[in-house]
Write a structure and sequence with these properties.
By secondary structure, the protein is α+β, with helices and mostly antiparallel strands. It contains five helices and four strands.
Length: 111
């Protein structure tokens, strides 16, 4: 089976965006409140019917290390959300900047 055939079925699959964060100890509670499943980011994302949820995972061995997993109906739906909510997204991103020492987009995936 060729590569194109193998991945063809993923085109309409869920779209998942994964971020990694390093958070100073004094910011952990505020970070978890902002980035958790019911946090400020999830509240913004819920304005889209295509949003499927957020998971916040804390590293079991590295203090202050977190991963978020945001799920969307499709890449197209995520892009539409970003286009329609760019100002709110950027404002929230600036407001939350002080909570993290480092923020890295791990990737965007279909699954």
């Amino acid at each position: 089976m060729g590569t194109a055939s193998r991945y063809h079925g993923l085109r309409s699959a869920m779209f998942i965006v994964v971020w990694q964060f390093e958070v100073a100890e004094e910011n952990v509670a505020a970070f978890e409140a902002a980035y958790g499943a019911d946090g400020f980011w999830a509240q913004l994302f819920r304005t889209s019917a295509a949003y499927r949820g957020t998971e916040l995972l804390r590293d079991a061995y590295v203090p202050g290390s977190y991963v978020t997993i945001d799920r969307w109906e499709s890449e197209e739906a995520f892009r539409a959300f970003r286009k329609d909510n760019d100002a709110g997204y950027e404002k929230l991103d600036r407001d939350c900047d002080a909570l993290t020492a480092r923020e890295t987009r791990i990737g965007a995936y279909v699954g």
